[in-house]
């Protein structure tokens, strides 16, 4: 499936090597990784299976198809992948219907990027129906464009979503800062050639060249992201 996102022409942030900021959604901007796990546990309980806690680190941050496929294989549940995917998305959509909690520092960071007209994209492995519901909380006006997992032939951990977002923003991936909370997302961003700020949510993420690891978005602002481009950290 190819993306239907229209091309967007933007200009680099003035006076900075930073051209764009690309942000993950679940666990990075909104505190929903626990929601996904609760839904998965509940659905599999109805199917007669108990999910082991160790599965959580495997499925976190992954595309729905990969996570659902893993859980079917791990439990031996008698359900088709397409049916399980639709069921999980539907249950999660119901759960977030009344809004979702933002991660500490998320609202401030989005407001600062918007105030300085920094091209910003939301890049998620979640499906479009989920992203559109979460945008009611995050504010669609805070993003130049959004990329959903079901709009890509290959989503995270492949680099495709970040390469698409950078291209649509007219930005060089090497001059894009990515904010992610899982190793799956970090892998995708680094494979695309982006600089990464990792804010681990469920599983730890080690520091590496071109990657900064912080404890919270409260440590991240525009100055920090510009410094990521120049190595001033």
From TrEMBL:
Pfam families in alphabetical order: Hydrolase
InterPro entries named among the record's database cross-references: HAD-like_sf, HAD-SF_hydro_IA, HAD_sf, PGP-like_dom2
Signal peptide range: none
Gene3D superfamilies, per database record: HAD superfamily/HAD-like, Putative phosphatase, domain 2
NCBIfam families: HAD-SF-IA-v3
Annotated protein name in UniProt: HAD family phosphatase
